[in-house]
Design a protein that fits this description.
With 323 residues, the protein is an alpha/beta fold. It contains nine helices and 16 strands. Bound molecules: flavin-adenine dinucleotide. The site of flavin-adenine dinucleotide (FAD) has 28 residues, from helix 6, helix 7, strand 15 and helix 9.
Amino acid sequence: MDILVVLEDNNGTIHRMGIESIAAAQHMADSLGLSAGAMAMGKNVDSLATEASGYSVDEVLSVNHELLNDYSSDGYAEAVKQVINKENPTYVLFGHSYQVRDYVPKISAKLMRPFLADSIAIDFDGKDVSLTKQMFNAKLFSDITPSGDAPFLISFQSASFLSDNATTGTAKKREVVINLDSSMIKTESEAPFKESSGGVDLTAAELIVSVGRGIGKEENISMAQDLAAALGAEISSSRPVVDSGWLSPSHQVGSSGQAVSPKMYLALGISGAIQHVVGMKASKNIVAINKDPEAPIFEIADYGVVGDLLEIVPKLTEAIQSK
Ligand SMILES: Cc1cc2nc3c(=O)[nH]c(=O)nc-3n(C[C@H](O)[C@H](O)[C@H](O)COP(=O)(O)OP(=O)(O)OC[C@H]3O[C@@H](n4cnc5c(N)ncnc54)[C@H](O)[C@@H]3O)c2cc1C
């Protein structure tokens, strides 16, 4: 297998970034004429492997082990390292999740191979691969060409590839046996970090109501939360809202926050600064409410409402609730 996607478990289903990585792997496999597969790991990954086998990849590997029941960077890094050593992939792809940020550097150190983290795009020149990475908070882009001996460990930023673009198919499943014992696991993790108080990962949210400085004051946040609740949406924000302490840092979208790609991103009183836009421009539908008709957010919005959000939002919530 030339390209191996390492999937992440999101409460019994594949984390959306894993499906985005499958889309990336399919794109690489088509462009380079390579084979691609995916691996799921945990105590019992049958359902995850079955879900993955519904995508057009050559093979899905299941790695089941008692010591992978709970996440630990030591256990996960050792498991992936052993699979890499057995399967010899050239490229190993991950979604750039919190978990991946935690354990993949350990694989990199174990194998003495670089981790090309948080890439946003991939390009090909013949058989050469070039990865694009944002620098200085997305003010500059750099292109990186991996060289030297494989494997190359690569993670993609959320929404760099769209999960909807992952082609479905029928992949065969195979069990891979690894050797783990408790002496190898010296770290113990706390409960997984959740990006929102509702317990749903913002990067996996389908609907997002996002609050900007235009909300005016902390007391008005509940207005946006009511709208989010009526829509069944998650709540996020621009940086000034977090800097003011009105929402916790985990809600921030942008170059120094989360990158999201929901089906609908409703921006309330957000001007559309580049540092915010890089985190949400992959949203499928962007709806903006802003009192300034010249606000840059309207340049990327699919639907725009020029008006005072403090008047519009309560009426919108009421209208949705009455449905
Ligand atoms: C290194 C660096 C990293 C950064 N990282 C991030 C990041 O990750 N995420 C991020 O968001 N920002 C980030 N920023 C900040 C970014 O540059 C902007 O300052 C920020 O995004 C602006 O937030 P805003 O749109 O909420 O506020 P503003 O730019 O102040 O916009 C407020 C908007 O609300 C509108 N408005 C006001 N009142 C109302 C009303 N009653 N009804 C309707 N509309 C109204 C205004 O017309 C205006 O367009 C970063 C900046 C730097 C320098």
